[in-house]
Design brief:
Layout (H helix, E strand, L loop, with lengths): L2 E5 L2 E6 L5 E3 L3 E3 L3 H8 L7 H9 L6 E8 L9 E5 L4 E2 L2 E2 L3 E6 L12 E8 L2 H4 L4 H22 L7 E7 L1 H8 L30 E3 L10 H18 L3
Parallel strand pairs: 4-12
Antiparallel strand pairs: 1-2, 2-3, 5-10, 5-11, 6-9, 7-8, 9-10
Bound molecules: flavin-adenine dinucleotide.
The site of flavin-adenine dinucleotide has 19 residues, from strand 5, helix 5 and helix 6.
Length: 242
Amino acid sequence: MQTIVVENGKASGVTLADGTLLKADYVISAADGYTTLYSMLGGRFVPPPVKKAYDSWKLFTPLIQVSFGIRKPVPTQFPVTSILAKGKTIGSTTLKNNFMLMNYSFDPTMADEGKTVIVIRYESPWEKWKNLEGVAYSAEKDRISEDALNLLEQYHPGISEYIEVVDVATPKTTVRYTGVMNGSYEGFIPSKKNFGKTLDMTLPGLDNFYMTGQWIYPGGGLPPSAQSGKWAIQLICKKENR
Ligand SMILES: Cc1cc2nc3c(=O)[nH]c(=O)nc-3n(C[C@H](O)[C@H](O)[C@H](O)COP(=O)(O)OP(=O)(O)OC[C@H]3O[C@@H](n4cnc5c(N)ncnc54)[C@H](O)[C@@H]3O)c2cc1C
């Protein structure tokens, strides 16, 4: 979807990247909030509280996930461990607090029998990534892969020889798959500025349109994002007296 079509103050469909027009009675955007407001709707329906939120509320620092496919079982009682490692460097990121070591042995859908997936996850600021492209980007991913493997060795000595596959997902990967602003994986970070606040799912001057997803609810995450879809349907039902 590229643009939301507005006719007489009413959302009436969407156009796709190839120019196809899809007409609709209602439009619900579940895409990135900033892109929806400023690109798909061209910035024409941004009320002051929403503008203030996007201008001033802080975002979550994006995540890097290094996933290892391991050719042997690695049983554990601790699926998720948070390891304090302030000052440690992985690739060119210096950790502010910690990294997570996540062992998915408990989940048979994550790997074939006799194999395991372990993930190392940590925060890396968007500023580091936004202009990183091409050879420099690939080199950084290689460095991350190497450093993360050395880290994994410290907790599972000898594991390197069982590694079958390594996948490095960066903040840019998150953006590529979801379009999310600045790789902010849960949108606005809760703070005293926005605690307890939500952004309206409707926009003044634009009928038959609803915003859903993590951007209407500081803290984001899966629960409010999923629930906002239900709220959008309830609002439509109310409007249609159903
Ligand atoms: C590594 C990682 C770990 C996380 N861990 C947790 C966790 O443990 N618990 C938790 O609650 N949350 C977690 N989250 C956050 C959670 O995944 C998000 O908050 C949630 O998925 C947001 O839902 P959403 O529907 O708003 O957006 P998304 O899930 O990002 O969905 C947006 C969809 O819109 C599509 N889209 C974007 N632009 C367009 C366009 N122009 N046209 C068509 N389609 C488009 C995208 O492809 C995508 O499918 C994590 C996120 C990441 C990245």
